[in-house]
Structure formats: structure tokens, C-alpha cells
Amino acid sequence: MRRLTLIAIPYLWLLALFLVPFLIVLKISLSDTAIAIPPYTPTLDLSEGWAGFKAFLSQLDMENFTWLTQDDLYWKAYLSSVRIAFISTILTLIAGYPIAYAMARAAPEWRPTLLMLVILPFWTSFLIRVYAWMGILSNEGLLNSLLIQIGLISEPLTILNTNTAVYIGVVYTYLPFMILPIYSALEKMDDSLLEAAEDLGCSRLQAFWLVTVPLSKQGIIAGCFLVFIPVVGEFVIPSLLGGSGTLMIGKVLFEEFFNNRDWPVASAVAVILLLILIVPIVLFQRNEQKQREAEG
Amino acid sequence: MKNALMLCTAALALGASMAAAEEVRVYNWSDYIDEALLEKFEQETGLELVYDVFDSNEVLETKMLAGGSGYDVVVPTGTFLQRQIAAGAFQPLDKSKLSNLDNMWDVISDRTAKYDPENAHAINYMWGTTGLGVNLGKVREVLGEDAPVDSWDLVFKAENMEKLAECGVHFLDAPAEMIPAALNYIGEDPDSHDPEVIAKAEAVYEPVRPFIQKFHSSEYINALANGDICVAVGWSGDVLQARDRAAEADNGVEIGYFAPNEGAQMWFDMMAIPVDAPNPEGAHTFLNFIMDAQNMAAASNYVYYANGNLAAQEFLAEDVITDPAIYPTPAAMDNTYTTTPYPPKVQRVVTRLWTKIKSGT
């Protein structure tokens, strides 16, 4: 009985917080837009019983999904989101790995402090931190005035409202999600393995590539997924730091929802986004499972 | 057990209804009121005022159409009001509770009745035009003394925009106003609902698009005032607020507002009560408070927008009532146009076109 309860809790969680909302979104994506509250039709009316439910079902259709295929905006936005997420993930990895490595190499009594420092930015609201970047990157911002003052440039660089600013914002925001799993993988590593590698004739660099990196592979994979998946659907960073040329599916979804007030199409966009993300999510799950089996 | 539960529920319900009776929740545009008025309202009525702000009609409309926004008074623009009334989002006003209704100005009421027949659901808060906010010093420096600051040529001619791009140009991120402006510029009906006519707006934006730094509906107030940009297509009162902030900062920035001579869009922001407002009684009290001649005048004196209140005019500051950028001359008023809401299919065309204009995709 106790075992059953334990298993039931995560499934109930999943059911209430993922499956039910998803089914609602799916249902809206099959509806038609209308000038009403809520702004779509049909809505489920249970007062007429089974007949009402059947009438409701017969009014649903795939029209909105067909619409998505007819306008290349959506595909371009999906592709561009995936590309931005992919490049950001690589950049975050390049920035995060050395940090995680240095943390894992640091004296044990320092590690809790270093870990705290990585988590510390979360104490400030995410929105405020992204806003702070607007102040840093703008034409009259801190970065440009610093660069001009030290004579590196004479004209301010236009960074804010470009894709570069989006990458900076994303890498900054998601860095801890990359560092933490890599750090946890590296920290567990047995130093004697490196000594063994060197005894067997590896240079330090070779030992790093042949021993350290493979042993932290699980952490790298976990970190990459933790960054990639949320960045694909990211909305706040591109809308605050990106320009009007930054095409991301999160912004398209926002526009469908708020500017077109077309909840059905917005929901269809969300459903497709989820389908696109299911592939990496399943891969991530598999990776986690493999890791558990290896450890178990 | 059951009794205790019922008691609890009753207590909760009572608590909820008591809280509702004490609070009035207002959702208005950002930078759109003299905040001293909010305190005055609380003191005069004993009601607690919760005052939130937004900067786009689209966000407001989404809340209205989702229902259950929890607000007692909201302020959509006329075209949006009309569509939301059609969706059943607002309750008819109980005019017996609005003793100050006689203060309203028929010139404006007649126009707003186009959106809301007999003004049954809303009162006019303020109105204005959509036009050009210009940093006069910089623009004359870039384009010369005879820069066409009172013409849409300023922002729709590539040769001007190319030069202005150096000092920065912002456009409103409001397709329901920027598409009509482009159509009006090329001599089409700005209120056209014909997708083929609407599509012509793209050709207006295409040559100037590379020179537009940003599409945003509220940042330009500060950007103009600080001298970060030199032209903004914006709302009259917002530009005038920028003018005032620059004057206060004494930073050498001189801002002017111009309703372009090819015609400017005239719009009306309307106060209405959502159909599911928790405290409609308090909402009526708030509307009546706003329609008080002195209160309305105080608001206009503060935000530099004209209002639809005739009795308020005697309390308006001299520089407000006589400023043609705020209260246009009758001739200038004839040189404005109004729009009506797009039906859903056309709305889709408009937003899609706007996305294309903004992002090039």
C-alpha cells in the first residue's frame, strides 16, 4: 500500500500539472476562434449530457494545424528557436565546463561556498537580472561607455535588440543549469584515476580528454538538456533583449495569443512546440535511466 | 464536522464579500493619471483603491476575454471596447449612480457613441491623436531647418529615415494604429477592412523598415526625453510628457508633438466596468469621481491628454487648454480619422502583416 502511494504521487503530479493542462490546450487547438468569453468555440456544455458532448466533439477539427503548415512564419520560427537554443547550449557548455571543473578541483572546504556563489544570482528575480542586461548592453550603457573610455572603440556597439544580446542573456541566465550537473559529475570522480592515467603515460591534457571528460559525460548531457529544452520556448529574454528581427516561437506564440487573440492557433503552436521538445525530453529521460542503471 | 466546515465556508464567503466591498480595482494605462487623485479618491470615499497599469490594448483584451480579471474598472480604446462589448465583456452602466454624467462633452460623446451606442457601457476618460514626437534640435541638425516635422514624410520617406536612423526612430508596436497610418499616407481608406488594401501598407514600411530601431509602445517616453532617440511615432500626451520630462531635466532636449497634416488617427480611451467586476458599486463610484470636473481637469493637467469632460475645461491649466497638440483646433479635428475593429479573419491578416513588417519574415 505504501509503495503504491509512493508511486502514485509522481503520477498524480504528472496528471494534474502536465496531462490535464495539455489536454485543455489540445482541445482549444481544435476549436475555432470567436468573439466571446472565452474567445473560442465550441465550449463543453455538460448540461445536455452525452448528446451535448457528441455535438461538441463533432465541432472540433484540425484546421488550425493546417494553417500552421500554410504560413512559413511558423516553421521559420521553430527552426530559428531550435538553432538559437542549440548555439546557446554550446556556448553555455563552453563557459560552464571550466567553471564546474575549477569548482570540483578547488579545496573541499571551499566547494560549498563556490556552489553557493553559483546559485546566488537566483536570489534576485530573473526579470530584474534580464533588465539589468538592458542597462549594460544599451548604446549609452555600461559596456559601451567602458569600451569607449578605455579607447577600444570610438562608436558605441549596437548589441541591445540584436541576437547577440539574446545569446548573452541566455548564456548568463542558464549557466547555473549547466554548471551544477557537470560539477556534481566531476566532484564524484576519483582523483586516483588521473594518477593512474599519468602513470600509464598520458600527458595531463590527454588524461583530461580520455578520463575526465568521459567521466563527466552524464553531467554534460544533463546540463545540455536542461539548457536546450527551456531555451527553445524562451520568451522573456528574446522579447526584452532581442530586436524585432529575433524570430523565436515563444514570441510568435505570444503574438497569436495577445495580438491576434487567436487562442486556437496559439494552442496549436504550443502543441507542436511540445511535440518538437518531446524528442530531446525522451532522450534526456533515457540518459538519466541509463545512468541510474549504471550506478545501481 | 460538517457544521464546522459550513461555518468555515460561510466565514470565508463573508470575508470575501467584505473585502470586495472595500476595494475597487482599476486597470489603466501606464503614465495616465495624477497619482494624487488616487489618494484623494481613497480619502473621499473610504474605499481602498488597487491601481494596476498596462501598456497595450492587446494585453487588456486578452484578460477581458479570458474572464475573471478581478478588475472593477478597465480602460480600453474605442475600437477594442466595441469588440469587447460584442463579446459580452462589459456591463451596462447604471446611469442613476453617475450624477456627474452631465459634465461630459457632447462633441466627444457623439464620437464615442460610434463604438458604444448611446454610451451605454463606458465613459470617455481621455482622447488624443497618434502622431510624431520629434526632438526638434536633433532632427533639424540631421535634416536641416525645413525638416518636415509635421508630415508623415518624416518617417515614411526612406531618404529622411536613412538620416534619422543615426539618432534613432521608434514606432508604436500597435498594428491597429500603424497600419491605418500607412494606408492614410498613400491615400487609401485608413479604416479599410479589405485585405488587399491592408496589404499595401507593407510597401510603405518596406523601404523605411531598416531604419526603425524599435517597435514599442511605452519606452519612447523616456527615450525621447533623454535624447536617446530623435523621432517617435507615438501618442500625443505621451510625447508631451516626454517634452515635460526633458524640460524638467533641463538637458537641452526640446521635444515637439505634431499631428501630421496628411491626417492623424483620433482615439478615445474609455472607462468600462467588466461584466464580472467584484465591486460594480465601487466601480460606479470611481467613474463618478473621475467625471468630477476638478478631478478630470487635474488628470489632464498632469498627463497632457484632452478629456471628454466639458465642465472640466474651466479648471484646465492655460498651457493645456490652449495647446493645439492637446486640444486641436476644430479644423485640425476635422483632419483626423477614426477606425473600427477588424473582424477576426482580417485581424489575422493585420497581425501577420505587422509581424512581417517588424521581423522581415
Topology:
The complex is a heterodimer of chains A (296) and B (361).
Chain A: H1 2-29, E1 32-33, E2 40-41, H2 49-58, H3 63-70, H4 72-105, H5 111-119, H6 126-137, H7 142-149, H8 163-187, H9 191-199, H10 204-215, H11 217-232, H12 236-241, H13 249-259, H14 263-295
Antiparallel strand pairs in A: 1-2
Chain B: H1 2-22, E1 23-29, H2 35-45, E2 48-54, H3 57-66, E3 73-74, H4 78-86, H5 106-112, E4 122-135, H6 136-143, H7 153-156, H8 158-164, E5 169-171, H9 175-185, H10 195-198, H11 201-205, E6 214-215, H12 220-226, E7 231-235, H13 236-249, E8 255-258, E9 264-272, H14 280-291, H15 293-303, E10 306-307, H16 318-321, H17 330-334, E11 336-337, H18 344-359
Parallel strand pairs in B: 1-2, 1-3, 5-6, 5-7, 9-11
Antiparallel strand pairs in B: 4-7, 4-8, 4-9, 4-10
Helix pairs in contact in B: 12-13
The share of residues in helices of chain B is 40-55%
| Low-pLDDT stretches of chain B | 1-20
Number of domains of chain B: 2
For the terminal residues of chain B, how far apart are their CA atoms? 63 Å
User: Would you give the CATH topology of chain A?
Assistant: MetI-like fold
- SSE string of chain B, helices as H and strands as E: HEHEHEHHEHHHEHHHEHEHEEHHEHHEH
- How far apart are the termini of chain A? 24 Å
